Amino acid sequence: MNPPNPSVASTPEDRPRSSRLRLRDRVALGCAAAVTAAAFLHLVLTGPAGTFFAIILPWLWVPALLCLGCMPWARRRARAALLVPLLAWGLMAAPALIPLQSSSVPQAQGGADDGRITVASQNVHAGSGADSTARAASALAERGADVVVLVELDDAGRSAAREVLGERYPHAYTVGTVGIWSRYPLSNTRALGLGLGWKRAVAADVEAPDGTLTLYAVHAASVRPGEQGARDEMLRDLSQVIAKDDAPRAVAVGDFNAVAQDPALAGIRAALSEPAQSTPSFGFSWPAGLPLARIDHVFQRGLLPRENTMVRAGDSDHLALVASFDIPQ
Asked: What is the pLDDT of residues 162-205, one digit of tens each?
């Protein structure tokens, strides 16, 4: 019997190694497909599933980079596919990292004669104490806010905010857990039920010197595992109210308990737009100690965004937001 020709037959050691490489390729490609799908599922799913994939979207860069790390040992024909998750994340999430560019606003729309209004908002966390709410209110006033919106107010926090803001913000409207304090007169104030049995949103016309705008202050219902129907109904009803509002200038601000890409915000995003952050970031606002998600937002129409940033104020579990807009003339 002739001995096997080593140039033709593979050794036993080679065959298992080849099998392992094929299995690794299949696992890597399966993971890449899963990460790519996860980047788009918030577009087609609603309810808890859509909310879940919207929450994880900004963080998909982590598994996308892990897929990219598999390229050195992947077979050549599989390497290109391992780039797809990162490209999908770049398409769906990375644009939010592009900072607000005030200089890109055409001068014909926003000139030196335009007035400016600054809106600040924070969920002050009921139970955090009157001192915490007072410090938060004072900090937002010191940021030069013309309008301060505080949500999740309890009795102690509401009293503290009135004491701190009352002199500088003589125009105020509070209902339930939501309060507006303004330098400028408020008119047409109204509480919004939005399908709930209690009031967690209000609206008012802010009569700024350079033009009136409609302000919606929002404290959306909470989201818990298997329990988000109240929030979805509230945001859907709010979007319908905004869609029917023919005010040329409008701002909706507060704690929406929904990330930017959550399907529950689709109606509001169709009527209003959210400015980018002033610095390259996703603008995560919760929890304040280690922000992982942006659930506090400011949406607008008819204004020219100049600033949108998150700041620390008081001892709340939410960061505060400060947004400035030019009012076109």
From this structure: 999 999 999 999 999 999 999 999 999 999 988 877 789 999 99
Please identify which residue in the block is written with the tokens 């802010």: 206
> Which tokens is 315 given?
């001892």
Backbone angles phi, psi at 169, to 5 degrees: -125, 80
Tokens coding 96: 């939010």
- Contact between 161 and 134 under an 8 Å Cβ cutoff? The reply is yes
pLDDT, one tens digit per residue, over 126-166 is 999 999 999 999 999 999 999 999 999 999 999 999 999 99
Helix (H) / strand (E) element for 242: namely: helix 229-244
In sequence order, the 6+-apart residues with CB closer than 8 A to the CB of 286 are 292, 293, 294, 295, 296, 317, 318, 319
> What is d(CA 174, CA 201) in angstroms, rounded to the nearest whole number?
10
**CA gap 63, 86 in Å, rounded:** 9
The tokens of 55 are what? 């929450």
Rg of the chain over Cα atoms, rounded to whole angstroms, equals 25
Report pTM: 0.89
